[in-house]
Each structure stands twice: as structure tokens, then as C-alpha cells.
């Protein structure tokens, strides 16, 4: 089963969900007649910019009117709102679509059910909502492709005006533009590359190569299951399948583990992996309240600051007694501990290592850490890479990413992220990878990028290899549009090709939207011989927020298939001027 999307549980057995006031009549049909398009005679109408009204005659003419905004409480439809999981609406800028895969599949299932009940259904959008109109056009096209077997060209012939609509680039600060009627596809403006038609092509492509299956929509139960799996993958691991069972993309695991939201994964490795025979660095945590009370002398509440006393010498479980604790046997916090904490408190609220501990007090362990992270991160300290132990690459000190897209410096104080809805917490990241047959992890980010270095950096490279998962580091700078060079692309693609077809690959960067998705897309173009423009439409649906700059969009859309990509890589490697002269590569 595809580890993807789900459909709302609020649907009844008929497959028809009936929100309060969902059936609306259109205001007089005269002025609106030109705006309607009959997609399926006597069955399905398309009426963008249709005002709400109460004209009985119009209601009869249009049948049941379906508006996405009427389903705002549905966990999968979400009222047709564009969202990037783990990010606030303000963070995504002007990005407005396309909608996520669970919304697409849920809509298809909903429309199928309502057609069965009402016979005639009109899909409508509200006037002045250009983003809602473009998103609804993608949904209607997906329904016709997935459940009615239409070709993209057939959909275009009925909804040609919508096909030319553009979506802003993910995280864009510039609104999209609607191409004038009659203009060729692809003429949208510097930040407008993805069209509605490309989204239709992406859905048709995914169906053709097996990343989507009609079985996912056979009934409400199946669609709900697929959509729920898709949503949980994003909520718990900030990950998404681009090619189910074959290619995963995600954020750096440490950004997920450090997230205090209880619905996200808490550990990188299974707790049992820290065996007695393994030499690891231990740390003892002393809870320090945000507002201390000397009257009670008790330790702080969960979530307050913690004083960590760390031994720099690697030890085993048997040597655990050698650690020094600053708390008293009765559980009170000693004055000595308060004194040390006072000296450190003003220095930083993030993780800090001190070599010159003699400044604090002679005889204490040789490293002290102060952290303000939530309680779920206590065990993550030993799972994380620091300094030379983190082989993801270190950016130069003067490379602060000033021209980086900076899309994924997560705001852990944001309350947008939903809380856990399942009784069982998510398993650790390594076990999750093993459960999904991930044989290889490719990291394309540096460890000390903005948004990573302030949480302690990325993980140790050997972590996955110790659990039988191959690991490859190909760090790519996130600036200048975030387009990897040919050498980095070749390295990642060759590594992915070496993984057996029955096993999966996982590629991640800092946020799992830009460099990692572009690398994964090139690998998929090479292996499945699919066009980049259609792939762009698909990944923007499968992973909302994916492909983060116009440069990445244009780079991907230049490839008509595997031959173009191969020719591009040969030319950039300096060994195939002949191939380039044959015109097989459209990259300029």
C-alpha cells in the first residue's frame, strides 16, 4: 500500500459528505452562463467565480454545488486551504498551491460520492479568489484523470483557460500571474513557472508509472487509509514519498527530533542501540525551573531550563557511577548548582560547550551544557553530531547563506503544528526507515546551516551505517538558487542507482524542500524517463513546499526526459560536446 494520503472520515457510506449549507443556488443564470463549462454532459459542471445565492431555478439548473470552503472542518480537505506542514501561513509567503495529495484524493472521492447521490454536481469557486480557482481546477482535472480516465489534453480542451494559470514558487514573496487568454503555456513571470496543466500532467504521469493507483480511490475506507498514512508521514517525520516504495525526501532528522511538538519523532535511533558494550558520552540532567524558589528548593517543572553536567571521557554503562551530579540526595537543588547555573544563564539559552571550566569551579566535570530545549530532547543529545563527529560538511564561517532561500529555519514556538492524534507515539527515525525498506540515506545539507547550527547541528554520519543503512554525504550550498552542480548530481544519482529496486532511497537537506527534492527528481527522471515539468507538478502536490526557487523550477522543467538529463550531465562534465551538438539537451 502506498505510504501516502487519506480521505476524510466524515464521509458517509455512500461516499457523499453533506456539510451544512453545502447545496447552494447560483444567482440568476443569465450573467453566469458564460462562466460555466459542461465537463460531463448532464453530470458535472465547472463554474468558477460563482456567487452564492438563493435562486431556486438556478439551483435546479446547477444541481448540487460543491465548494471546497464548505469543508473547512474536514481533516483532509481542510477547506481547500494551502498549507505546508510544520509551517505557519505567514512563512509560506505568496505560495498558494497546488493542494496536497491527501486533499486531491479526498476531493476525488468526495466528488464521486456526490455524483452518485445527486446526479448533477457543479464545482464552484468564489468570485475574486484566483488561488482557490486554480486549486479547484487542479482538483477537477485530477478527478477526470484518475476516475474517468481522461487524458491531460482532454481536460485541457474543456478547461483551457484554467490550464494557463500559474502558481507562485514555493515560499515566494511575489504573487503569481494569470497568463492572458491565448498566450503560450510557460509565459508567467520571473516567479511563475508551475501551471495548472503541469499539475494535471504530474498526476497523469504518477498514475502511468504507478506512484498513484486507481485502487487508492476504490472506496472511502481505502482512500482514508492512504491519506492518513500520507499525513502521518508528514506530521511525524516531515517526510513525503515522491515515488512510493522507491524515493523519500525529508527534512534533516535532527530538525524533527528537536521539534517540541509531541506528534513528531523524538529519537534518531532505538533506545536499545546504546548498549553496555558501546562507548558513549553520557550526561546527567539537573532540572532547573524557569522561576526558581529557594523556599521549596525543589527542581523545576518539565520544560524549564536544564543544567547538564557532562563527562568528556567516553564511558560505558558500568562506569555510570563515575558521573558527578549536582543535586542533593533528597532531590533539592544545591546552592552550588544554583551558583554554577547563575554564571551560565546569561551566556546562552542554546547548547554551549565550555572548555575552560576552571572559570566556573575546580573539580567539576570538564564540559557543561545549558539548553532550553523541551524535555523530549533529553535523550537526543547522544544521537546528535557535533564538530568533527558530524560529517555532513561544515560551511565556511564567512558563508552565512545571505542569499539562501532560508525556507526552513523552523519556528519551534509556532503553534500551527497539530498535536498527536494517534495513541502510539512515532517510532525512532532509524526504525521508521527500516520499516519502509530504506537502504540508503543521502544528506545534501551542511551541518552548521542557519536553522541547524542553533540546535546543535546534524547527526553523526555513522549512525545509519551502524544500523545497516548506507549513508552518503554530498553537501550542496543553499544559495544562488540552490541548484546543485553536475558533479553532485552525478554522485547522488549513481548512488541511488546502486540501491536494489525493491528497496527505497531517502534524500534530505535541511528542510527537505529544495536541494533534496531537486536531487531526487533528477534521479527519478533518469530512472523513469519522465519530463521535468510534469515531475514539478507532481512533487509540488506530493510534498507541499517543494522546489523552493524559480531557478530550481526552471532547471527541472528544461528536461524532457532521461536523454536530456544525461546529455546535460555529460556536457557539464566536459566529455560530451558531440552529444550536446546533436541537440539532445535543451539546457542552455
In summary, what is this structure?
With 588 residues, this protein is an alpha/beta fold.
Task: Summarize this structure as a short list of keywords or feature phrases.
single chain, globular, 4-stranded mixed beta sheet, 588 residues
Q: Which runs of at least 5 residues are low in confidence (pLDDT < 50)? A: 1-34, 180-190, 273-333, 343-391, 397-407, 414-422, 575-588
Structural class: alpha/beta
Mean pLDDT: 73
N-to-C span: 40 Å
Could you tell me the number of beta strands? 16
Q: Based on the structure, what is the oligomeric state of the protein chains? A: single chain
Determine the number of helices (DSSP H or I, runs of at least 4 residues).
18
Describe the largest sheet.
5 strands, mixed
Percent helix range: 25-40%
User: Cα-atom Rg, whole angstroms?
Assistant: 27 Å
Shape: globular
Strand order in the sheet with the most strands? 9-10-16-14-15
Q: Determine the strand fraction and express it as a percent band.
A: 5-15%
Description:
With 588 residues, this protein is an alpha/beta fold. It is built from 18 helices and 16 strands. A 5-stranded mixed beta sheet has the order 9-10-16-14-15, sandwiched between helices. Strands 2-3-6-5 form a 4-stranded mixed beta sheet. Strands 11-12-13 form a 3-stranded antiparallel beta sheet, covered by helices on one side. It is globular.
Amino acid at each position: 500500500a502506498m505510504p501516502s494520503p487519506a480521505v476524510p472520515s466524515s464521509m458517509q457510506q455512500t461516499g457523499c459528505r453533506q456539510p451544512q449549507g453545502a447545496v447552494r443556488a447560483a444567482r440568476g443564470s443569465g450573467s453566469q452562463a458564460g462562466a460555466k463549462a459542461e465537463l460531463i454532459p448532464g453530470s458535472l459542471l465547472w463554474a468558477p467565480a460563482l456567487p452564492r445565492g438563493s435562486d431556486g431555478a438556478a439551483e435546479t439548473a446547477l444541481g448540487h454545488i460543491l465548494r471546497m470552503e464548505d469543508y473547512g472542518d474536514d481533516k483532509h480537505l481542510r477547506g481547500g486551504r494551502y498549507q505546508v506542514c510544520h509551517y505557519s501561513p505567514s512563512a509560506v509567503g505568496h505560495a498558494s498551491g497546488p493542494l496536497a495529495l491527501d486533499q486531491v484524493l479526498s476531493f476525488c472521492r468526495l466528488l464521486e460520492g456526490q455524483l452518485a447521490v445527486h446526479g448533477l454536481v457543479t464545482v464552484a469557486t468564489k468570485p475574486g479568489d484566483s488561488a482557490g480557482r486554480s486549486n479547484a481546477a487542479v482538483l477537477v482535472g485530477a478527478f477526470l484523470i484518475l476516475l474517468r480516465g481522461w487524458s491531460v489534453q482532454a481536460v485541457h480542451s474543456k478547461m483551457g483557460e484554467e490550464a494557463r494559470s500559474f502558481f507562485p514558487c514555493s515560499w515566494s514573496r511575489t504573487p503569481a500571474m494569470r497568463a492572458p487568454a491565448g498566450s503560450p503555456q510557460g509565459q508567467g513571470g520571473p516567479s511563475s513557472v508551475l501551471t495548472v496543466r503541469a499539475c494535471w500532467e504530474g498526476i497523469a504521469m504518477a498514475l502511468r508509472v504507478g506512484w498513484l493507483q486507481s485502487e487508492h480511490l476504490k472506496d472511502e475506507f481505502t482512500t482514508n487509509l492512504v491519506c492518513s498514512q500520507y499525513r502521518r508521514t508528514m506530521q511525524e517525520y516531515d517526510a513525503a514519498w515522491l515515488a512510493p516504495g522507491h524515493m523519500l525526501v525529508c527534512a534533516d532528522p535532527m530538525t524533527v527530533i528537536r521539534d517540541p511538538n509531541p506528534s513528531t519523532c523524538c529519537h534518531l535511533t532505538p533506545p536499545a542501540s546504546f548498549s553496555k558494550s558501546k562507548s558513549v558520552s553520557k550526561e546527567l540532567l539537573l532540572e532547573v525551573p524557569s522561576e526558581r524558589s529557594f523556599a521549596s528548593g525543589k527542581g523545576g517543572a518539565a520544560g524549564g531550563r536544564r543544567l547538564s553536567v557532562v563527562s568528556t571521557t567516553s564511558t560505558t554503562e558500568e562506569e555510570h557511577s563515575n558521573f558527578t551530579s549536582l543535586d542533593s540526595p533528597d532531590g533539592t537543588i544545591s546552592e552550588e548548582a544554583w551558583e554554577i547555573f547563575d554564571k551560565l544563564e546569561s551566556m546562552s539559552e542554546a547548547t554551549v560547550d565550555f572548555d575552560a571550566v576552571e572559570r566556573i569551579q575546580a573539580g567539576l566535570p570538564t564540559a557543561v551544557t545549558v539548553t532550553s530545549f523541551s524535555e523530549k530532547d533529553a535523550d537526543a543529545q547522544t544521537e546528535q553530531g557535533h564538530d568533527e563527529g558530524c560529517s555532513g560538511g561544515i560551511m565556511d564561517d564567512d558563508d552565512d547563506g545571505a542569499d539562501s532561500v532560508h525556507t526552513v529555519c523552523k519556528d519551534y514556538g509556532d503553534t500551527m503544528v497539530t498535536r498527536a492524534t494517534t495513541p502510539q507515539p512515532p517510532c525512532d527515525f532509524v526504525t521508521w526507515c527500516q520499516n519502509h525498506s530504506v537502504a540508503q540515506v543521502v544528506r545534501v545539507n551542511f551541518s552548521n546551516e542557519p536553522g541547524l547550527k542553533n540546535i546543535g547541528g546534524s547527526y553523526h554520519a555513522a549512525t545509519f551505517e551502524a544500523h545497516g543503512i548506507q549513508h552518503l554525504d554530498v553537501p550542496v550550498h543553499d544559495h544562488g538558487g540552490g541548484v546543485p552542480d553536475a558533479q553532485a548530481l552525478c554522485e547522488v544519482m549513481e548512488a541511488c542507482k546502486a540501491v536494489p529496486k525493491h528497496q527505497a532511497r531517502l534524500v534530505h537537506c535541511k528542510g527537505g524542500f529544495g536541494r533534496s527534492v531537486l536531487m531526487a527528481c533528477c534521479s527519478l527522471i533518469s530512472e523513469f524517463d519522465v519530463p521535468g515539468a510534469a515531475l514539478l507538478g507532481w512533487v509540488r502536490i506530493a510534498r507541499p513546499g517543494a522546489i523552493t526557487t524559480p531557478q530550481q523550477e526552471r532547471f527541472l522543467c528544461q528536461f524532457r526526459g532521461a536523454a536530456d538529463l544525461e546529455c546535460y550531465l555529460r556536457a557539464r562534465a566536459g566529455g560530451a560536446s558531440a552529444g550536446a551538438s546533436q541537440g539532445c539537451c535543451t539546457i542552455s
